[in-house]
């Protein structure tokens, strides 16, 4: 990609002859340390969840109590992303990112104390609740940070692709590393490692991120905080493009979640080796990684035009899963079907990148937070639905039913898909000149 230039008014004119390389993105000042910081804090979250879950299981002897621990870790993430997201529009994102890690580090210290003193399980769950709650604003703040780091919006899309890949990889690393750390160390030792992730993350944000004044003028006081929250929701639901993108992501969630939710029951119900469940669960994740790499090479205009097509195709491989014989010899075919579905999930990359850029700059924190909370809530519901269908009918039937419902929902949205409005929004988001002052 050629170098950007500025016109006589000092406006950055982007070279749009091709997509920038990943090397260009990584070399952008501030990106790599903030990328590492986000990964570290994500791993810290998983270490805390696994550690507290195992402590609760040890003290209560209850699998239900252990499962409730993971549920407790999900609910505050939803609340934090929705109720606390306006903080990212009221406080410079550098302070939100550093402050979030500092608060979570303090809660980890409290957890270490509680674990050492044999505190009641309810206290452990309350501290974990707070730990997850204060991670919510950081997610929205990091999205705003990315939009500022990359005034070249094609670079932003590449950076968003790297972040999306990292989300997939960090989930796997967080679960595996979290389990290893908790197993190798005592509960307090694991929490000490957790604390280290937040300390390093906060330090990286403090050193690498420039404090930038918030856009717009937030409403004053506590009532103003909730007024801003309502204003973000009103802005979101009045914008046809944003509503359509959000609705598609929520409807598609059923097809995204179903394979992961029933992979292990699928192999167990058919007397297949247990380890194959993990391999099957990984199929859509691996597919998503490959899909993101491919879609990340497309120009935003091309990628956005293919969003609805890929979303329609995504559940199709899952629909035909029941047609495959349920034997070990045919499991490779199921794996490839789920891999293909995962690759088609890459439509979420241009969807999320466009969503972030379409939102007015002064409202990004609260609107992105609301969308993230809705997505997490939909994920939780889809897990429950897929699990219920699997238990009521069979894992194979659950995947097929979820895929059919997903396809039907996407087809309904496709009938009224705002193609022209979306094309106009994409053109404005990615092709309008960006002032150097945004840096």
Describe the structure.
- This protein is an all-alpha fold and 439 residues long.
- It folds into two domains: 21-209, MFS general substrate transporter like domains (Growth Hormone, Chain: A); 232-431, Up-down Bundle (Growth Hormone, Chain: A), CATH 1.20.1250.
- Helices cover 77% and strands 2% of the residues.
- It is built from 20 helices and three strands.
- The protein is globular.
The whole-angstrom Rg is: 22 Å
Classify the beta-strand content into a percent band: under 5%
Which secondary-structure class do the elements indicate?
A: mainly alpha
Number of domains: 2
According to CATH, the fold-level topology of the largest domain is Growth Hormone, Chain: A
Mean pLDDT: 82
Read across the widest sheet, the strand sequence of neighbours is 1-2-3
Low-confidence stretches: 1-17, 435-439
How many beta-strand runs?
3
The largest β sheet comes out as: 3 strands, antiparallel
Shape: globular
Summed up, the helix count is: 20
Distance from N terminus to C terminus (CA atoms, Å) equals 20 Å
CATH architecture of the largest domain: Up-down Bundle
- As a percent range, the share of helical residues equals over 70%
CATH superfamily of the largest domain, by name, is MFS general substrate transporter like domains
Helix/strand order, N-terminal first: EEHHHHHHHHHHHHHHHHHHHHE
CATH class of the largest domain: Mainly Alpha
């Amino acid at each position: 990609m050629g170098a950007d230039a500025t016109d006589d008014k000092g406006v950055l004119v982007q070279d749009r002859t091709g997509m920038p390389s990943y090397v260009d993105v990584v070399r952008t000042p501030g990106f790599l340390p903030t990328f590492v910081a986000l990964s570290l804090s994500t791993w810290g979250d998983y270490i805390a969840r696994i550690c507290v879950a195992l402590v609760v299981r040890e003290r209560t002897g209850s699998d239900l109590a252990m499962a409730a621990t993971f549920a407790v870790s999900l609910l505050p993430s939803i609340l934090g992303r929705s109720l606390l997201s306006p903080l990212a529009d009221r406080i410079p994102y550098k302070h939100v990112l550093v402050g979030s890690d500092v608060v979570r580090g303090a809660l980890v210290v409290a957890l270490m104390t509680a674990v050492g003193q044999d505190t009641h399980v309810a206290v452990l769950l309350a501290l974990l609740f707070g730990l997850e709650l204060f991670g919510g604003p950081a997610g929205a703040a990091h999205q705003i940070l990315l939009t500022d780091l990359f005034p070249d919006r094609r670079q932003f899309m590449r950076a968003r692709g790297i972040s999306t890949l990292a989300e997939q990889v960090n989930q796997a690393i967080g679960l595996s590393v979290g389990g290893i750390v908790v197993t190798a160390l005592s509960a307090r030792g694991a929490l000490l490692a957790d604390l280290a992730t937040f300390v390093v993350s906060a330090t990286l944000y403090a050193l690498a991120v420039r404090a930038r004044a918030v856009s717009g003028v937030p409403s004053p006081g506590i009532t103003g905080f909730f007024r801003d929250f309502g204003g973000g929701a009103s802005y979101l639901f009045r914008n046809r493009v944003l509503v359509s993108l959000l609705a598609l992501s929520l409807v598609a969630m059923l097809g995204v979640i179903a394979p992961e939710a029933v992979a292990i029951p699928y192999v167990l119900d058919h007397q297949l080796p247990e380890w194959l469940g993990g391999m099957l669960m990984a199929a859509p994740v691996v597919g998503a990684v490959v899909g993101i790499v491919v879609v990340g090479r497309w120009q935003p205009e091309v990628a956005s035009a293919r969003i609805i097509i890929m979303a329609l195709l995504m559940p199709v491989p899952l629909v035909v899963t029941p047609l495959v014989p349920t034997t070990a010899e045919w499991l490779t075919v199921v794996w490839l079907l789920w891999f293909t579905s995962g690759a088609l999930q890459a439509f979420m990359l241009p969807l999320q990148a466009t969503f972030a850029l379409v939102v007015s700059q002064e409202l990004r924190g609260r609107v992105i937070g609301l969308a993230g909370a809705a997505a997490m809530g939909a994920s939780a519901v889809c897990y429950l639905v897929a699990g219920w269908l699997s238990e009521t009918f069979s894992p194979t039937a659950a995947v097929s039913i979820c895929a059919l419902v997903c396809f039907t929902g996407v087809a309904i949205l496709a009938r009224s898909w705002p193609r022209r409005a979306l094309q106009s929004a994409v053109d404005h988001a990615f092709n309008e000149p960006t002032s150097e002052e945004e840096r």
